Amino acid sequence: MTYLTFGRTQCRVLWRRKQDTVNALLFFVMVVALFPLGINPSAAFLAPAAGGIIWCAAVLAILMAIDGIFKEDFRDGTLEQWVVCGLSLPVLMLIKVAIHWFAVVFPLLLVMPLVSEMLMLPSGSFWVLVATVLAGTPCLFLLGAIGAALTVSLKQGATLVILVILPFYLPVIIFATSAIEASQVGLPYIGFVAMLLAVSLLSLVVSPFMTAVAVKASVN
Amino acid sequence: MLFSASLDVSNVWIERSDRDLCRDLSFTLRAGEVLRVLGDNGAGKSSLLKVVAGAMTPLEGRIMFNGQDVTSHRALLQQSMVYIGHGAGLKSMLTIEENLLSYCPATSPEQMQSVLDILDLANHQETYVKALSAGQSRRVALARLWLSQCPLWLLDEPFASLDVSGVAVVESKIQQHINEGGMVLLTTHQALSSVVTRDLVLS
Amino acid sequence: MSWAWFHRLGSPKSFFFWSKRWARPAFLSGLIILIVGLVWGLAFAPPDYQQGDSFRIIYIHVPAAMLAQTCYFALGVAGIVSLVWQMKIAPMFIRAVAPIGAVMAFISLVTGAIWGKTAWGTWWVWDARLTSVLVLFFLYMGIIALQNALEETALADKATAVISVVGLINLPIIKYSVVWWNTLHQGATFTLTEKPAMPVEMWLPLLIAVIGFYCMVMGLALWRMQTIILLREHRTQWVKQEVTDHGV
């Protein structure tokens, strides 16, 4: 096994299982649709709340998607094979998370224009939303992978991962929605995006090693 | 191809779920040898293989490969071994060929074809693994033995769910491997009919 | 400098006998100090000129909040010790302390809410400090849920150690993001954090109560760890000897 074949295999499996990604996207759009239906469809409520709604829905969708990233690998024994293949496990984990990030976030960005129209997000804030998604979601995936690796041996659903990991997502949600709100009232928002990038970079340093430790503990 | 390698496992203690599996276990495996690990269910046969493979960390003990201490540099050992565990390690959404190429990327199409012929999977090259029976999946997992050039094989119940012809093919491959100076560490409940083995009994 | 004491404490057996000596004195002295602090604070300290007697809840609220944070910090440190040095005692410490920290966070939330009812007229205000204690409580509950869900001890130990370390790194980020969020969304209201300087008759009992809380929790943690050690090492000779000699 090489890093290249590992990455290629991951891409192939993801592509053949595209329904999972589609499900996550559908979930995202449905959660977004709950807010106008459940609270208030007027622009006066939706426009200022749009950033927060989109981010909360995205966080939930990502948590649902990330819960399963190691489940099948654990069941079919490939997880064990990665541990013993002689390649660096943290690097393998990083490759895997990066591929999953791309596979979920790229389609997510494609539906962003749709949901931001649905929620009447002011058009000036759209690109800020895109920037926060690009800068903040790597952190969500990297931290979520740790939780997914820790709970991979459990049969139960995503509840436990959500319970364990969601508190760690709070800073990302706060910085991202603050950036969008700041852009709506004409305040500088670049600092918030920089904070998001910083949080993502920090998790880039910590997460692969922690995920590797968790995977190794789980295959035993 | 002729291998010359040796594996020294000394004073290994394995604990699992607060239960001692192996206490102070030592053994040596030399080139051209098959070591069969025997023991009751739950005696720690699979755990021992995992420890050698590096999937599990022993409480204590040292593992030497070719005279080099690999206890904390496991990659040295891992690059010259094939480990096939209980799980086949195959992705159900990939074809047989794609699965095998992900493990052994250097395989040529002819080599692939000949191995699949040997394993009676000739017409299944493009079949998804999810469509295979348990015995066929086992054959695909074992195909890595033909495709990789590693001196050390760690096989956990390699004959599970194989039929008679499958067992014969794998046994002859094991025989060929040890003739070339390879080493095999395997757990199995059934006796090997054609291969001479040394037994290690875990109690 | 010799590290022998460090390694000796790391072995469950010597830790057990060490903690057996110290658990009771720590707990009892903590209890006495706490009673002194509470009686002083609740009965004899002067009432606050703004809040009257309702401020007295700080004699429980503040120590509990401090302990909730200290315990989480300690979990993170134990997590590092467990992952890096594989010390056997560290995961036991995490298992023993996580519920205590969760209870402390809960006490501080409840007392904070009661205080909020008298100070602000509502049970809950999204104040920075209350919110970060709430998040801390969530973090504790996550660790406990993980601990209970994973049946295999070795895996549960690794998992809680990993989450504790990640939590230790993230705690300052979470805390400051909450403070930041709070200042964005609320103007300067009456906060619990920036009180005018307290007179000495007010903060001295608070200090005593804090020390009492710490000692008591230390004693409790040692007791819990003793139980865990006995459970986990039940096959060893010294535990059998201990149980037959002294009972459980």
UniProtKB/TrEMBL annotation, chain A:
Query: What's the protein here called?
Result: Heme exporter protein B
Q: How does it sit in the membrane?
A: Multi-pass membrane protein
Q: Could you give one GO CC term from the UniProt record?
A: plasma membrane
Keyword annotations for this protein? Answer: Cell inner membrane, Cell membrane, Cytochrome c-type biogenesis, Membrane, Transmembrane, Transmembrane helix, Transport
**Phylogenetic placement of the source organism:** Bacteria, Pseudomonadati, Pseudomonadota, Gammaproteobacteria, Oceanospirillales
What protein family does this chain belong to? Belongs to the CcmB/CycW/HelB family.
BP-aspect Gene Ontology terms: cytochrome c biosynthetic process; cytochrome complex assembly
Q: Where are the transmembrane segments?
A: 21-39, 45-70, 82-106, 126-150, 157-177, 189-215
What is this protein's gene name? ccmB
Q: What function does this protein fulfil?
A: Required for the export of heme to the periplasm for the biogenesis of c-type cytochromes.
Q: Which GO molecular-function terms appear in the entry?
A: heme transmembrane transporter activity
By its UniProt entry, which Pfam families does this protein fall under? CcmB
Domain of life of the source:
Bacteria
From TrEMBL, chain B:
Q: Which residues form the ABC transporter domain?
A: 7-203
What are the alphabetically sorted keywords of the record?
A: ATP-binding, Cytochrome c-type biogenesis, Membrane, Nucleotide-binding, Translocase, Transport
Q: Which Gene3D superfamilies match?
A: P-loop containing nucleotide triphosphate hydrolases
Look up the domain of life of the source: Bacteria
Q: Which Pfam families match?
A: ABC_tran
Task: Spell out the PANTHER family in the cross-references.
Answer: ABC TRANSPORTER I FAMILY MEMBER 1
The protein's name? Cytochrome c biogenesis heme-transporting ATPase CcmA
- Organism name: Marinomonas algarum
UniProtKB/TrEMBL annotation, chain C:
Q: State its location(s).
A: Cell inner membrane; Membrane
The annotated topology with respect to the bilayer is:
Multi-pass membrane protein
**MF-aspect GO terms:** heme binding; heme transmembrane transporter activity
The principal localisation class reads membrane
| Presence of the UniProt keyword Transcription regulation in the record | no
Task: Give Gene Ontology CC terms.
Answer: plasma membrane
Q: Which GO terms describe its biological process?
A: cytochrome complex assembly
Name the InterPro entries on file: Cyt_c_assembly, Cyt_c_biogenesis_CcmC, Cyt_c_biogenesis_CcsA/CcmC
Keyword list (alphabetical) reads: Cell inner membrane, Cell membrane, Cytochrome c-type biogenesis, Membrane, Transmembrane, Transmembrane helix, Transport
Q: What does this protein do?
A: Required for the export of heme to the periplasm for the biogenesis of c-type cytochromes.
Per the record, the similarity remark reads: Belongs to the CcmC/CycZ/HelC family.
Protein name per the record: Heme exporter protein C
- Organism field: Marinomonas algarum
Q: Which gene produces this protein?
A: ccmC
